[in-house]
Amino acid sequence: MYILINVFFLIAALIWGDWRNWRKYYPTILFFIIGDFLYNFLLYKKSMWIFHDMILPNHTIITLLAMAVSYTATVLIYLGKFPEDWKKRSLWFLLWFGIYLSIEIVNSNLGFITYHNGWNIGWSALFTGIIFIILPIHHKRPLTAWLLSIVIIIALLSIFDVNMNDMK
Q1: S-S: 157 plus which of 31, 41, 110, 162, CB 3.0-4.6 Å?
Q2: Rounded CA gap, 13 and 160, in Å?
Q3: CA 87 – CA 28 distance, rounded (Å)
Q4: Beta strands at 113-115 and 49-51: parallel, antiparallel or unpaired
């Protein structure tokens, strides 16, 4: 399943991604990837979700593939075509929110993602919304995005009762 998803994102990036300006988006691509690395590192012993696949061997490989392909494609398309008009921005946000959430719902229903330690599809929806709000913020104001991210991480660690002992 995850190979298919990443092939879809790669094709979409080749068609619609702003490859000419990839250097402009590179810091935000890294920001997106670092966020996922932080999740996987900080919550190594207390995962909120785990990916499963019939072909790819484990969560780590699936996540690394997503970081390399899907996240890069997402930023190149999402920010590359980011509208100036606020109404169009809202529709663009809803489109990407819908794409990511639909993929997760399908994967959840098929057993390719499982939730743990109080996480559920509602939290995923909220978190997906945050991602698509914070990516353009990072693109324009990276320090602001980092500060917001730190606050969000601390809040989530608190909400889900993740203690220092829960970390590796």
Answers
A1: 162
A2: 35
A3: 23
A4: antiparallel
Alpha-carbon distances, residue 157 vs 15, 118, 119, 125 (angstroms): 38, 12, 12, 17
Cα(128)–Cα(84) distance, integer angstroms: 21
How many Cβ atoms are within 10 Å of 13's Cβ, its own excluded? 21
Task: Judge contact between 1 and 110, C-beta under 8 A.
Answer: yes
How many other β-carbons are positioned within 10 Å of the β-carbon of residue 21? 12
pTM value is: 0.91
Average pLDDT across the chain, whole number: 93
Both tokens assigned to 66: 């997503």
Neighbouring-strand partners of residue 51: 113
Give the separation between CA 92 and CA 73, rounded to whole angstroms. 15
Give the H/E segment covering residue 22: helix 22-42
Q: Which residue has the tokens 């699936």?
A: 62
103-110: long-range contacts, CB 8 A cutoff, minimum separation 24: 103/5, 104/128, 107/1, 107/51, 110/1
Rounded mean pLDDT, 117-138: 96
Report, as an integer, the average pLDDT of 8-25. Answer: 96
